[in-house]
């Protein structure tokens, strides 16, 4: 077979392999998911569009699909009280929501306690400090922003925890499909900002989850 | 001769031609300056290093040289009381000073009233609002920043005047010699931010001066 | 809710928040517009395609839609006599029209007096000087051009007001989706040229409007 | 004065402002350091070359300079026993040493417990697993690599903690001054890899230190 | 006619001209294939989508089409026993399969002996050494990887034969359509890694085939 | 009206304005064409797809459309005997045909004598010298090539006339939409190679036509 | 020997091989020049700095060196009356002079009649039309410009001959070492503009010389 | 110590680790070389400038330094008769010599039979076929070229062996430090061209040596 699942990942890395849905058929995804389930692993698959999700749900009726995040989860029905740590996902504008939600779903799947702060981009500078209480004691933050990607730098000046910055492709022209926000975040004058790939809500969430749940 | 000075520029554009010093000899600069002086024009030359300035001062002893801005001015000894408008030059970090000072010298030469707010970059988010009174009623702002170039976006959320953003080449690695800050400013989510070339303190100052003195 | 409107923007910045329509549903746009209207604000939304505009007009019948500019305005039915200042929007080629019209609509919404000069690109060098009388006394200019983006530099040599240059993505191949025109404008040898993002007719118009109406 | 130190940073962010030495004079650095010392803060300055370090040591004889890392520290003479957490800095080749050492010095200054694993790049694939015991239980890793920047992805497959990947400019030609390694790390198929700027040993160390000491 | 087939290629280069299917009509492809067949040449055409393959099969019923590789072969029905050399095609992830299969088909057409090792990317570092026996004695390897493109560097450390690395466009954001993997492979610290164009499974296969069959 | 045709172009530049069809409606194109016709000018329009051509032919039945070149001409029905000069259009591969044909149509419209040499790319190095007699005495050459864009450099070594090189977007991956061929041609070690935009068959033809017909 | 001079070039291409001086020793250059002289060829060498020129003049006292153009010529002491054709070299700013002079020297060496028009960049738009009589009847133009590179487009609108545009690296920041001017020229809306490499005065001159002298 | 030499490399990869000299001190290089020698390995070090070579020769008098290739070899004094295979290194221009020589030295160190063909770039198209007999029966070719990098594509059309193309940084302006040649080679229309990093003579030689000596 062309897939060779890494079934030892949980022992080494704490969490099982996550399925990258792009360019895989519904059948392939369902098969990998089943194999993981049969080993007792919780399943997360990312980058699943609605049509593919519908196909998969025929094969795996127990899956939970989130259409904003475009993720699919199975088997992580954790009572809230057992959630660990405290992660806040902060996003700059309404259009950054899908990426923020991919981080959110990833954190739920990891069993982390997570809350959301939306639409507090820098053009309305009073909005962020008003909500400081919601995030200043977090274990880790995920900060999602497109266009000029300035939000992580500003958030960085308010907190003592690591920030995982996720640039998005939101914008047009000289945003270069997210490169502008990516470069901005890499050059942040705040010391506590680490960066992941453009639109990689999954990675931002995963890293924050590692910090918060360990 | 290889130089063909645009002697009609003041009538059309309000200010005479400014001498771009890079790649011109001290003799050429002195000669253009003299020709402009003989027409009664005020002289500004930019991008003049100290060695060249010393050479020029032999030929044109009345010139005023600013070694931070690397500019040279002649004949604009304006009484302060006659200065027009109100421009504030805001800079993010100490290393952005030379670019901010190039804007400053340009504004003085134009006869604009100008003040400076230094080192209020976004990593210390309380520093900017503390100084709001100094710039909230300006006719135009020049905002100078390197690294992630986030400052103009943040300033943009506080004011009702146009902002001329000047990206600087301050930083390293993925700052790409100032491209990161430039892209950041071009993608600003603040509506009132226009952008000039990297390290172009002269242009930022000139545009703010046009708004303030007209 | 995922949107957190900046309702204090008019006090700080002179004009209310403008709605960026890309990636928002008709419902979300209508809801934000209603909230702004209920506060007595004038509404501008940009990047609204025809289909979305039709949906919104069901919810907000009083909206005025411009299909070239792809903008939507509400509540700014200003008598012409009250328009302030004098802005001219100049464009290089026929294909630059949509971007020029986005600037136009923005200026109308701001209450600025505005006129248009179309298709005066540099390949027909006599066309621009013939129309000099229409723009030489403007308070600010918006100059829109694609391909090599040379027009703002040429216009810059004729006027004493600030120019807000808008590069467009018109062209092909080495135009790099507008990057060629953008770089051209950033490197203008005219001192009075500031630049905004590719295809950002809104920003060019907004900045010119700030200068003209203040 | 042109410097406006952020003296409240420790309260908000856990650690005081760090001095970026590039483009600052020895006098300016000594003055900022003294001001921080007088508030009881520990001092870290980065990107200080040997000549500048010698000048500063005249003014601040108590400083400790590391010529590989090009950093300067004051006042953090912490007994080893009080060091917190467990960070390992892993580097790919001998030429990556200066960047790895910048991370090392930063971690010492933060009071973290830190150890080093050098020259275990992927071309000798047996070298890394041989040293697994030294880093598999770390709280956070800093992984430093130039050229193709593959090391963080490989390390990522062995551990359950967050990895802060630091691309270096080591290499030539199509390494594009470190961009190749940077892109490689951003696109890592390992989920636990976050990235900082090229040659930013300081940032990689700082983020790992935040995770380990909190 | 607009096509001028290089009918002498086999004498000079060992193998006939291969048809690049992109942007050619089914008729043109069938005609070139027939002309090659009439000279007794084996035919390979690449980048043929399913619809075009169906059209061509009307005209050339003897063709063999592979829908994963998107290639078409005619006339190379070689008994396995006559296959020469030993090439292994190794791929990193399931999504890299089409590119790996293009290499595979090319090698079959050349008459090389070839086997496949799938889905052994670096995030599961134990998977590759487990399969070492399958490839350590190859004459040449083709290694296919997207995202960070680290696999060829790791494989390079295990073998004594040349490696032809094929970057793929698999990934998103800062993968830049495969440029990230391409740069990674060009900067490999393994000495035995040569590189071909992004998604160029054909070229990787062809070069390995030259080494193995000569 | 939004179009301001440059009706004096023939006097100044020898040929009338050419209509760039991209982003213009059939009506606009027909109207500009009619205005040019009414002045006695020959008409050329480029970048007209088949659907638009059909619409235009309703309004201007006398137009001649070439579906490979995607151009439209009116009123240049020149007897062959009157054609001037001698231009040869040479192309590298079959997929470069549309661009070569755009050059061809442009040259016909200019009244130049023109012939075509197709599919003589460098991978079959004997093909070009075999056809030397067809182009060695040309007044000017247009050389069209995609992928590595090497053909103009090779042709340059055989002839004494200027070569106008046209890079095409033919290829994939690291061809970067034609940038690879463009850079290759700009860096040609042959002295007689000038370059135009990617896919700009029109421009290559126009320049060769100027040389040949003057 | 490592040099293999192309001694047949004049027969095929009309002019002998030109020596590219960069990275060659004075001895190598003198030796190639002597070999060309012994065949009766005129010699041109480019990119020779003053120090190297001095060394060469020891070995070849008859050479003529131009320190602005950094070129060296031998044996082309043509009486002016025999010069052929009519080329004008137009440059935008004083700093573009060295590149314009490289074109000038190349044209003299080719035996072309050539004149110079300096410092007529677009910021002073009246300067160019004032000098129209000097260039409107040329056989070919070389137009040299840095920064935004707009001059060739403007000149293009005035003339009926081919224009060879030479972008220069003059400028800073977003000029990207001349890339901005290069892209600008490649995207010219004037039909008669062909482009050569950045700072390639030699090539611009050579191509214009081919047109003018043939 | 900071160096962890891969002493098992010869067993796995056929040849020992090669020392990359850039950024290592003479002491470090001498020490690694001695350790390799003490294991009976032949030593190759690359990117050693003359000054460093002189220092090293104090410590390791038996080393052989080549100042064009900037390489250092020890212990490979192989009788010519034992040399294996047949590699030809072909270079385009005189300035590409240092890179060609790095390949040459690498091949000698590997014990391969090697010959050189210099200065046969495409601008003199007759030079290459004249020397066909010298390389048409090679086991592998290394082809070195800067500027437009066309040579490997042309050579590819003449031979049946694999070609390892080495782009060089020779050229200026739009050569982008070798990127133009690199892209050209990656997009070669010849099937038998694989590519290594810019200026990587070592890698080109190493790969050809693997093919020829196995
Ligand atoms: N959205 C995502 N972005 C980046 N990496 C991902 C994403 N989803 C899953 N992955 C990673 O992709 C790897 C699986 O790739 P594959 O073998 O192609 O299925 C896993 O190791 C995950 O860590
Ligand atoms: N620092 C600067 N940055 C950008 N443009 C400048 C600068 N200084 C002067 N200029 C412009 O350069 C032009 C003069 O160029 P030149 O003819 O080369 O002397 C003037 O029109 C100025 O507007
Ligand atoms: N295919 C083409 N490529 C580049 N320029 C063109 C093309 N077709 C027409 N043009 C130029 O585009 C200009 C007209 O632009 P516009 O005013 O937008 O119609 C004319 O001056 C032509 O020189
Ligand atoms: N000139 C060179 N270009 C690319 N790689 C090289 C070069 N010289 C040596 N190497 C590789 O660099 C590695 C050693 O790197 P390091 O550990 O930094 O000494 C070896 O594995 C060699 O394969
Ligand atoms: Mg919002
Ligand atoms: Mg500071
Ligand atoms: Mg027009
Ligand atoms: Mg090593
Ligand atoms: Mg997998
Ligand atoms: Mg062909
Ligand atoms: Mg000038
Ligand atoms: Mg030569």
Throw out a few tags for this protein:
binds adenosine monophosphate; 214 residues; 8 helices; alpha/beta; binds magnesium ion; homooctamer; 34% helix
Indicate the multimeric state.
homooctamer
The helix count of chain A comes to 8
Radius of gyration of chain A: 17 Å
Q: Span between N and C termini of chain A?
A: 35 Å
Structure report:
The structure is a homooctamer of 214-residue chains. Chain A has helices spanning 9-13, 26-38, 50-59, 97-110, 127-130, 151-156, 179-186, 201-213, and strands at 19-20, 43-46, 64-66, 71-74, 84-91, 112-117, 140-145, 163-167, 193-195. Chain A starts with 8 loop residues before the first helix and ends with a helix. Chain A has a five-stranded parallel β-sheet with strand order 6-5-7-8-9. With 214 residues, the first copy, chain A, is α/β, with parallel strands linked by helices. In chain A, helix 2 crosses helix 3 (50-59) and helix 4 (97-110) packs parallel to helix 8 (201-213). In chain A, helix 6 (151-156) links the parallel strand 7 (140-145) and strand 8 (163-167). Chains in contact: A-B, A-C, A-D, A-E, B-C, B-D, B-G, C-F, C-G, D-E, D-H, E-F, E-H, F-G, F-H, G-H. The A-D interface holds A 6, 12-15, 18, 139, 156-162, 164, 182, 186-187, 191-197, 202-203, 206-207, 210-211, 214 and D 12-15, 18, 139, 156-162, 164, 182, 186-187, 191-197, 202-203, 206-207, 210-211, 214. One magnesium ion (MG) is lined by residues 93-94, 119 of chain D.
């Amino acid at each position: 077979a062309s897939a060779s699942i890494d079934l030892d990942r949980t022992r080494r890395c704490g969490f099982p392999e996550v399925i990258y849905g792009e360019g895989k058929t519904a059948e392939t995804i369902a098969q990998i998911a089943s194999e993981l389930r049969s080993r007792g692993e919780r399943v997360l698959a990312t980058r699943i569009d609605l049509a593919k999700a519908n196909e998969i749900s025929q094969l795996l009726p127990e899956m939970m699909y989130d259409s904003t995040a475009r993720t699919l989860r199975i088997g992580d029905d954790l009572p809230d009280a057992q959630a660990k740590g405290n992660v806040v996902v902060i996003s700059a504008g309404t259009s950054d929501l899908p990426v923020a939600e991919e981080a959110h779903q990833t954190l739920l799947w990891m069993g982390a306690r997570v809350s959301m702060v939306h639409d507090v981009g820098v053009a309305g500078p009073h909005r962020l400090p008003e909500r400081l209480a919601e995030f200043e004691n977090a274990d880790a933050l995920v900060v999602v922003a497109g266009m000029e990607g300035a939000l992580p730098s500003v958030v960085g000046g308010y907190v003592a925890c690591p920030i995982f910055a996720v640039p998005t492709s939101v914008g047009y022209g000289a945003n270069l499909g997210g490169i502008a926000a990516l470069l901005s975040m890499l050059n942040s004058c705040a010391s506590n900002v680490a960066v992941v790939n453009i639109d990689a809500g999954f990675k931002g969430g995963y890293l924050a989850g590692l910090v918060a749940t360990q």
